[in-house]
C-alpha cells in the first residue's frame, strides 16, 4: 500500500515582506490538513480528491494568498477567480474561470468534474451551475480584504509594480491506493482585464494528473506557462527519464529565460517522488507525508531543489 502525501504551494512570484511568515504557516497548515484527511479516509477511492480539497480550501480561506479570500482585483476593482482539478485514476477533470466573487472556487471545479458532462465552465454559466448544484460561497464580503484593496489602489496609482506578483495556490495529493489529484485555485493577476484567464483552469497547462505520468501544478505568469503546456510537458519529460525534480527545474529555467516571467511548478510522480522548482523572487510550499514531520518554507529563487 502506498504511503500518502500532500504537496502544496502558495504561489511563485514576489511575496510582500509582511506576508512571509503567514505564507509559510499557511502552506504548512494546508498540507497538514490535507494529510489528515488522507489518513482519515484510509484506502477509500478518491481520498486524494478529498485531501486536495481540504488543503486548497485552507489556502483559499487564508488572506495571505491570492485565491478566495484576499484574491487580486481586476482593472475594474472586481474579483474574478479560476480553479482546476484532475484525478489520475480516469483523467477526469473540472474547471471554472472568470467567476465573480466566489470564495471556494475549488469546490465548484470539483462539482464540474463530478456532476456535469463538461470540463470547463466560465462566468455566469458557472455561477448558474453552482446555484443549481447548491455549491459555492458567493459574495464580495467573502473575498475582499483590506490588503487586496490597498494593493489595488497602489497598483492603479502606479505606486507599486504589478509584474510577477505571487499568485495561485494548489495541492497535489497521493493516496494509499496510489491515486493522484492535482488542484489549483487563483484570483488571477492584479489589474487584469475583466475576463482574463490564465493557466490555472486549463488542463495540461496549469494542472494535470495521470496514473502513469504523475501529477503537476503550475504557478506564476499564466501566459508564459500556457505557451509551453507546462504541466503536461513537465510530466512527459520526467517519464522520459529526466526525473521529476530535474524536469521541474529545467522547465522553470527555460520559461524564465525565454519570457522573463515568474514561474514555478510542483509535481508528484506515480512512485511518490516529488519535485518543486521556481524562477521567481519567492515561492512558499509545504510537504506532508505519512509518518514524517511536515516540511515547508518560503524559498528564494531562482530554482531551489525539493527535499525528498
TrEMBL record:
What does the entry list as the binding residues for substrate?
A: 196-199, 219-222
The active site consists of 168
Q: SUPFAM superfamilies this protein is in?
A: N-terminal nucleophile aminohydrolases (Ntn hydrolases)
Q: Which GO terms describe its molecular function?
A: beta-aspartyl-peptidase activity; hydrolase activity, acting on carbon-nitrogen (but not peptide) bonds, in linear amides
Give the keywords, sorted: Hydrolase
Name the Pfam families on file: Asparaginase_2 (PF01112)
Q: So what EC number does this one have? A: 3.4.19.5
One term under GO cellular component = cytoplasm
- Indicate yes or no for the key word Zinc: no
The secretion signal range is none
InterPro entries per record: Ntn_hydrolases_N, Peptidase_T2
* Site feature Cleavage, where: 167-168
Which enzyme class, named as a word? hydrolase
> What domain of life is recorded for the organism?
Bacteria
Please state what the protein is called: Isoaspartyl peptidase
Gene that this polypeptide is encoded by: iaaA_2
Amino acid at each position: 500500500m502506498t504511503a500518502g502525501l500532500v504537496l502544496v504551494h502558495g504561489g511563485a512570484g514576489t511575496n510582500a515582506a509582511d506576508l512571509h511568515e503567514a505564507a509559510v504557516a499557511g502552506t504548512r497548515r494546508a498540507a497538514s490538513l490535507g494529510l489528515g484527511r488522507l489518513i482519515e479516509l484510509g484506502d477509500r477511492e478518491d481520498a486524494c480528491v478529498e485531501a486536495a480539497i481540504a488543503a486548497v480550501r485552507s489556502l483559499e480561506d487564508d488572506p495571505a494568498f491570492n485565491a478566495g479570500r484576499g484574491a487580486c482585483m481586476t482593472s475594474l476593482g472586481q474579483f474574478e477567480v479560476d480553479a482546476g482539478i484532475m484525478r489520475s485514476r480516469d483523467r477526469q477533470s473540472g474547471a471554472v474561470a472568470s467567476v465573480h466573487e466566489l470564495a471556494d472556487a475549488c469546490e465548484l471545479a470539483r462539482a464540474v468534474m463530478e456532476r456535469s458532462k463538461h470540463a470547463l465552465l466560465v462566468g455566469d454559466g458557472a455561477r448558474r451551475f453552482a446555484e443549481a448544484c447548491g455549491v459555492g460561497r458567493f459574495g464580495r464580503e467573502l473575498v475582499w480584504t483590506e490588503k487586496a484593496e490597498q494593493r489595488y489602489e497602489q497598483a492603479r496609482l502606479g505606486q507599486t509594480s504589478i509584474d510577477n506578483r505571487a499568485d495561485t495556490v494548489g495541492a497535489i495529493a497521493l493516496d494509499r491506493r496510489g491515486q493522484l489529484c492535482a488542484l489549483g485555485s487563483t484570483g488571477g493577476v492584479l489589474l487584469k482585464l475583466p475576463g482574463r484567464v490564465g493557466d490555472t483552469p486549463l488542463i495540461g497547462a496549469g494542472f494535470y494528473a495521470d496514473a502513469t505520468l504523475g501529477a503537476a501544478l503550475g504557478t506564476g505568469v499564466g501566459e508564459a506557462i500556457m505557451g509551453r503546456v507546462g504541466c503536461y510537458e513537465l510530466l512527459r519529460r520526467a517519464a522520459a527519464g529526466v526525473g521529476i525534480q530535474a524536469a521541474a527545474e529545467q522547465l522553470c529555467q527555460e520559461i524564465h529565460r525565454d519570457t522573463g516571467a515568474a514561474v514555478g511548478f510542483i509535481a508528484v510522480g506515480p512512485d511518490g517522488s516529488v519535485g518543486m522548482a521556481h524562477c521567481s523572487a519567492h515561492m512558499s510550499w509545504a510537504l506532508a507525508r505519512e509518518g514524517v514531520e511536515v516540511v515547508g518554507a518560503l524559498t528564494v529563487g531562482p530554482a531551489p531543489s525539493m527535499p525528498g
